[in-house]
What does this fold into?
Amino acid sequence: MEIRGPVQLPARREDIELHTLDGLTLVGELALPESVPPVATLVTLHPLPTAGGFMDSHVLRKAAGRLPALADLAVLRFNTRGTTSPRGTSEGVFDGGASEAFDVAAAVAFARERNLPRPWLVGWSFGTELALKYGRDHDVEGVILLSPPLHRATADDVAAWAGDHRRMVILVPEFDDYLRPGEAAERFASVPHATVIPVEGGKHLWVGENQTRRVLTEIVAAVNPDALPLPIEWPDA
It folds into this structure.
């Protein structure tokens, strides 16, 4: 079987709830390797909910569908406050990235409570803003930023990472709608250890199997490079 599209490879999947310090319940899912402990954890932060982003946005859904089996990773997805998906609706209302600080904290706390190893924040678009603004406050190994628009995250938010030892990996599509590789290199220059990866032919939404595979490969390269190259076939049952 070719691994593509919405295929879900074997994993232990559990519907979960996160509880924020300001009293909200957020809905999500945890996907774990089927028969071995995870070697690292992806705490994912979805794109802008007012533009259709949610925990099932396709790159995050495919990460959860594939990477527990292909790379022994735990993948935590959830809807930020006020966001709806087939899993359900998280309590609260969208706050433009301000009160969502509590949502990030709740997700990292959940990973800690479950003893999930080596958590990384993986943000996509709006999710990168949350990772940049609030990730330094938490015990994570690093941040992976997919298509960062740098709309809500200020120059000061970026520069604050300069003295931080944790890794920052940034995937910037060649044809991004908001921030393209040349400008990204300039705007992240304040973080000397940041790795900006231009993706030839890429677009903000990473549409198509080739772009999906490239994103998932770069995530695994940062978090568990021993799992590379990622297979593109899975044995039929």
Remarks:
- Residues 209-223 form the longest helix (15 residues).
- Helices lie at 58-71, 100-113, 126-134, 155-159, 181-187, 209-223.
- The mean pLDDT is 97.
- The first strand starts at residue 12 and ends at 19.
